[in-house]
Amino acid sequence: EDRPTGEIADSAGELGFYSPHSWWPLPVALSSMALGLSLIIGWWLTVIALGALVISIIGFVTEYEKPLPETAPH
Predict the structure, then answer these.
(1) Cα(11)–Cα(30) distance, rounded to whole angstroms?
(2) Domain annotation covers residue 1
(3) Per-residue b/e over 7-29, b at no fewer than 16 CB within 10 Å?
(4) Number of folded domains in the chain?
(5) Phi/psi class of residue 16: alpha, beta or left (left: φ > 0; alpha: ψ in -120 to 50)?
(6) Around 47, how many Cα atoms within 13 Å sit in the side-chain half-sphere?
(7) Residue 45 domain flag
(8) Does the residue 13 lie in any domain?
(9) How far is CA 56 from CA 9, 15, 16, 17, in A?
(10) Of the N and C termini of the chain, which has fewer Cβ atoms inside 10 Å?
(11) Is 73 within the bounds of a domain?
(12) Model confidence over 24-68: pLDDT tens digits?
C-alpha cells in the first residue's frame, strides 16, 4: 500500500476483525447517566445503577468472545 509499484495481490490477506453494529453502547451510556444522576438523588439508586453499569460493561466487552473448544485434537 505504501509502495507505488505494489500490486493489489500484495496487500491481500486478513485485515482483522471489524465488528458489526452493537447495541451495548446504549445500555452503557444509559447506566452511566443513571449512575451520575443517582449520586445526586440517593444511595439506593447508586447501587442499582452501578450494578447495571457493571453488567452492561461485561456484556459490551464479551460480546464477540468465542468459547474455547471442549476437546483439542492431539
Answers:
(1) 41
(2) no
(3) eeeeeeeeeeeeeeeeeeeebbe
(4) 1
(5) left
(6) 2
(7) yes
(8) no
(9) 41, 29, 25, 22
(10) C
(11) no
(12) 999 999 999 999 999 999 999 999 999 999 999 999 999 887 776
Reported residue count of the chain is: 74
Whole-model pTM over 0.85: no
Task: Tell me how crowded residue 31 is: count the other CB atoms within 10 A of its CB.
Answer: 21
The kind and range of the H/E element at 61 are helix 43-61
Q: Which residue do the cell numbers 473448544 mark?
A: 69
Cβ pair 63, 28 in contact under 8 A: no
User: Residue 33 sits in which domain range?
Assistant: 22-61
End-to-end CA gap in the chain: 40
Task: Write the single-letter amino acid at 29.
Answer: A
Geometric angle at alpha carbon 56, from 53 and 60, rounded to 5°: 135
